Amino acid sequence: MAPSISSTKTDDSACATAGLASGIIVCPLDVIKTKLQAQGGFSGIADRATMGERVLAYRGLAGTARTIWTEEGVRGMYRGLGPLVLGYLPTWTVYFTVYEKSKDVIADQFGGKSWFTHTLSAMVAGTSSTLVTNPIWVIKTRLMSQNANAANASSQFSPISNTSSAYIKVPYHYTSTLDAARKMYLHEGIWSFYSGLAPALLGLSHVAVQFPLYEAFKGFFIGEEAEKSTNSFTHFWGVLAASCLSKICASSATYPHEVLRTRLQTQKITHSDGDTRPRYRGIIHSAGTVYREEGWRAFYAGMGTNMLRAVPASAMTLITYESQLSLLVSCSLNCKLTT
Length: 339
Known about the structure:
By secondary structure, the protein is an all-alpha fold. Among the domains are: 79-151 and 173-191, no CATH class; 196-301, no CATH class. 71% of the residues lie in helices and 2% in strands. The chain has 13 helices and 2 strands, in the order H-H-H-H-H-H-E-E-H-H-H-H-H-H-H. It has helices at 8-42, 60-72, 74-77, 81-110, 115-145, 148-152, 177-188, 197-202, 204-226, 233-254, 256-265, 282-294, 303-338; strands at residues 157-159, 167-169. The protein has a two-stranded antiparallel sheet with strand order 1-2. A hairpin with a 7-residue loop joins strand 1 and strand 2 (167-169). The longest helix is centred in the C-terminal third of the chain and has 36 residues, at 303-338. The chain is globular and about 60 Å long. The chain starts with 7 loop residues before the first helix and ends with a helix.
């Protein structure tokens, strides 16, 4: 039988290492993805009829990376790294801890670790981590979506391209994670930290698809006997293949909710001009607004970048988690044998 999780402390250490490693490496891709998802919500409604080169600030992975590098340099590529790392730690810690505990409890209730057990455990764990960490992700999204050059020029507008004089309105500017939290609380209230919570919870369908598939793929590639030896060559490549395939399937099926979440997170609840009517209100209204103004393609803005970002990050997180967990459990067992 494969080593079981012996304590919450073991879980926390493994999750912290996995989240920190993956968060730092994929941060530039997360910035690019966020800008591609958010830009449609910043441009004026009157510009929708001419949605083209003049309106779109960022176009594709390479074009967006070039624009960010030109306007902001390397710091722009790592905008929002603080809350990204800060968010990974509690997210994965809560998720994996609740997932493993729920899996054991549900298996006892329904007799065995079936597909239903993995799915329900993933939903419970995803709900728990989302409710705990949503404020961090709102701050991260806002930091990544803003443009430093426009703010430094004392403007609320962000240039659409290096050669165009057209602008899109970014209704906020924050200098740090703490500055974002302070301004959001003062000007928008506590509920601003839970913007996009509904589509985030809808996104639990993602983890409900990914982790049961991960368990199934891992069992297929590794097998019962190979899983006992967590240091084997087969185990490493089995975990890698399982994590990549499960992430690709889950991301492809559930990606539109990420665009809706980003749009809700990047809009201000109140405005300086006194207009307090939000552009996006809830999942249904937001989906209708995006479709009416931008078409169905907007629901997949940044999907390619997301795949390039999320698949390696997921693989790294799961591989690091499994290896760290195995190491910590082995050390714990060795310590017990020597005492």
